[in-house]
Specification:
The chain folds into two domains: 61 residues; 232 residues, no CATH class. It has seven helices and 15 strands. A hairpin with a 5-residue loop joins strand 3 and strand 4. Helix 3 runs parallel beside helix 5. The N terminus and C terminus are likely disordered. It is an alpha+beta fold and 328 residues long. It is 28% helix and 20% strand.
């Protein structure tokens, strides 16, 4: 090889052939450079257009997620941020929910989106559940049924509509419990489902028993091992015409070892649990729902048809989601 001219470009020589003339070499180099610039320019334009198209597509996907068809009723939606072992026992399954932050009106819809009860078109990328949102999501996994938002919040007793004498949605928390419990539900204590109870002072009370009274301890002692109980808590509430609301709910899981685990989502702690069989756990629960001068905090339990040792048949699959892969 030898250098040619002032360009200092190396040109191979074969079989004693003469190197190209300087003018032809310059033209050849210029042509290659022009072609390279042209290709780069068109590639950049195409890439930008493709990126814009992908961004628009992603935006459309995000906005259309809540509008997709629901998953099958026997498939349970799992947001990608939840790591749930579907083969585990119920207590281990519920550990996946612990410490999820509290979000006002927060829930998970039947398509695995973190959303709101009152605005299911809104989708959140971060987890957040209120008490009813946690109860709905946890019950799906424990019973193996993909309850929809509409099914869960149905006014099952027909007493909390716009024209209700007690105020609209005064018993929302109770409605969710009864809808999830199913037709084979059993009340604890079994006083029926009369909407209003008035004591001898004329104070409107909720169903169930006083959280701070001895009857609550008796109620806990009557619970059976390997059972799932959903609960709703009522309080005096001036925001509603009837003076009362069922404003909180959750679940109690009594496992084979006799521990009575209460799970719920609260403003301060998000999704958490306490063992009601332990004095410390019982005390913490009662402190969270203090007695007031306006009246009692009362709790109603509903036993559901649930086999602790059975593993619900959950079909597994994956679907596109802004949270990553979603198993269902």
């Amino acid at each position: 090889m030898r250098r040619t001219g002032s360009f200092k470009m190396w040109v191979p020589l074969k079989n004693n052939l003469k190197s190209p003339s300087r003018s032809r070499l310059i033209a050849f180099v210029w042509l290659c450079a022009s072609l390279a610039v042209t290709i780069s320019l068109f590639s950049a334009i195409a890439l930008k257009a493709d990126s814009s198209s992908m961004a628009a597509g992603a935006k459309d996907l995000t906005s259309s997620l809540p509008l997709n068809s629901p998953m099958p009723h026997d498939s349970v939606p799992i947001p990608g941020s939840l790591k749930i072992n579907l083969e585990a026992d119920p207590v281990t399954k519920l550990e996946a929910f612990l410490a999820i932050p509290y979000r006002v009106d927060g829930t998970i819809d039947e398509r695995a989106n973190f959303t709101l009860w009152g605005d299911p078109q809104r989708v959140f990328q971060s987890p957040g559940l209120n008490c009813s949102g946690f109860l709905l999501s946890a019950t799906r996994f424990l019973k193996g049924v993909n309850f929809t938002l509409l099914e869960a919040k149905r006014d099952i007793l027909g007493d909390s509509g716009v024209a209700s004498e007690n105020g609209e949605d005064w018993d929302f928390g109770l409605d969710v419990v009864l809808n999830l419990a199913g037709a084979d539900a059993k009340l604890y204590p079994d006083h029926g489902l009369q909407g209003r109870i008035v004591d001898d002072k004329g104070t409107v009370l909720g169903l169930g028993v006083n959280i701070h009274g001895p009857e609550f301890l008796e109620l806990l002692a009557s619970l059976q091992n390997d059972r799932l109980y959903l609960f709703a808590i009522s309080k005096p509430d001036r925001r509603f015409k009837g003076g009362i609301s069922y404003y909180h709910n959750g679940l109690i899981l009594k496992g084979p070892d006799g521990e009575t685990w209460l799970y719920h989502s609260t403003h301060r702690a998000g999704v958490n649990r306490v063992n009601l069989n332990a004095e410390r756990g019982l005390s913490a629960f009662r402190i969270s729902f203090p007695e007031t001068a306006r009246g009692e905090r009362r709790i109603l339990l509903v036993e559901t048809g649930f086999d602790y040792h059975a593993k619900p048949v959950l079909r597994l699959g994956y679907t596109a989601s802004i949270f990553g892969p979603v198993a269902f």
